Each structure stands twice: as structure tokens, then as C-alpha cells.
Amino acid sequence: MxxxxxxxxxxxxxxxxxxxxxxxxxxxxxxxxxxxxAKTHDELRGVINDVRADIRAAVAADExxxxxxxxxxxxxxxxxxxxxxxxxxxTRKISSI
Length: 97
Prior knowledge:
mainly alpha, flat, about 0% strand
């Protein structure tokens, strides 16, 4: 018996641990099956629209932060942009060697 198989028997492998971690979520999703099957097409569209609205609300703060960062970058003086361009080009040239 190798050390790897011995440790795997004690601690389990990554796949087993991941499956054990997500199994409660899978069970919750599966329990929604009969409820969702009973809904009409229009009701399902409503559920999807609710989910989309929840996602938009959840990412709104992140999108605002990204927009602010983009605005900040656009207001940088051109003297601070030049070093970034130089560094990027130099990195690309070095990595192609």
C-alpha cells in the first residue's frame, strides 16, 4: 500500500470531500423538482425573472465599484499610463524569449 493510498483512506480524496460538501445543496435542488414541475410555463418564467432580479441586485454594488474604477483609470494623467504600457510590453517581450 502506497503512502498516497493510505492517506487517501484516512482523509479521503478531493473529489469525495467536494461531493460531501455540495451534497446538501444538491438535495435542496432535487427537493424543488416536484414543486417546479407543478408550475405552468408562465409561472416558471416568473420564477426565472425573480432569480434574474435577485442576481442583478446582488451584483449591483460590484458593478458600481467597477464603473468607479474605470472612471478613475480614465482620469489618470498620461504620465502614469506610460509606465503601465511599458511594463506590459516589456513583460510580453520577455515571456516570448
